[in-house]
Amino acid sequence: MSMLNRYILMTGAPGSKWSSVSRTLCVSSDIDSSDMSVERQYVANDRNYAMHAGAYWDPGMEFSNEFEDWDKPFKSFKDTKTRLIKSHTFSHKLTRLSKDYDYPIIMVFRNDFECMNQWFDAGGFNIKYPNYKPYYVNDKIMFREIKSQNLYIMNFIQANRHRVVRVKNNMELADVCSVARPNEKNIYPCDSEGVHNYNKKDVQVYVYR
Predict the structure, then answer these.
(1) Helix, strand, coil % in the chain, rounded to nearest 5
(2) End-to-end CA distance of the chain
(3) How far apart are CA 145 and CA 164, in angstroms?
(4) What pLDDT, on a 0 to 100 scale, did the predictor assign at position 87?
(5) How many C-beta atoms lie closer than 10 Å to residue 113's C-beta?
(6) CA 140 to CA 143: how far, in whole Å?
(7) Cα–Cα distances in Å, from 20 out to 70, 120, 137, 196, 198?
(8) Can you give the residue ranges of every domain in the chain?
(9) Mean pLDDT in runs of 10 for the chain (209 residues)?
(10) Nearest alpha-carbon partner for 189 in 34, 32, 50
(11) Which pLDDT belongs to residue 45?
């Protein structure tokens, strides 16, 4: 691709609110959203918006996070837009990803307790898409994985702090990832100007570039 990255990689523990971060970036005209479908979204009973939208790549889910699976859910022509690849367990191999590929990596962080509470609030193991049960199995393993994923993310950020930047909102995120700024204003949890303020929503977003 000329100018645009072929991929943006993204990770965050369950309950980190990373799906809201991805959702408010994916409305950029440079992001390939052809992986989205009715089957690949999750709307909780008490909400009027999709909490999860588009494909997820993780063990036990629809697609693995290995490179050969990255393009599988997309319907558009390859290399015409940037594809956002979302995987919780990318957190365990951030160092390898950063060495093997020259793509931006978005990392979303909240503390372990808040992640666990948010994940239960979103539906826990009742979430229809993606399917968390095969890999996370039960509450105990889920909390163990949240702690592990958060630790790997923070360790990577610390080790690579000269190449990591923290962004405050979806507009800054688009700029850092070299895609067009989102232009959709009517999307939760953005304000009336279409800005997703991460600090107000209790989420920290970092980008390795």
Answers:
(1) 35, 15, 50
(2) 17
(3) 23
(4) 98
(5) 12
(6) 5
(7) 21, 16, 24, 9, 10
(8) 7-208
(9) 76 96 94 90 65 87 96 86 97 98 97 96 89 96 98 98 98 97 86 93 96
(10) 50
(11) 62
Quote the pLDDT of residue 2: 42
Backbone φ and ψ of 155, nearest 5°: -65, -40
Q: Which residues pair with 86 in a beta bridge?
A: 10
Global pTM reads: 0.93
8 Å CB contact between 33 and 110: no
pLDDT for 5 equals 82
pLDDT for 1: 38
Q: In terms of Cα–Cα distance, which of 91, 128, 112 is closest to 15?
A: 112
Query: What tokens were used for 200?
Result: 């107000």
> Cα separation of 144 and 141, whole Å?
5
Measured at the CA of 9, the angle between CA 8 and CA 14, to 5 degrees, comes to 135
Distances (CA, A) of 204 to 44, 80, 108, 118, 119: 24, 30, 6, 15, 16
Q: Per DSSP, which regions of 54-145 are E strands? A: 83-86, 105-109
Distance between CA atoms of 169 and 195, rounded to whole angstroms? 6
User: Which position has the token pair 């890999």?
Assistant: 135
User: Hey, is 166 helix, strand or coil?
Assistant: strand
Length, in residues, of the chain:
209
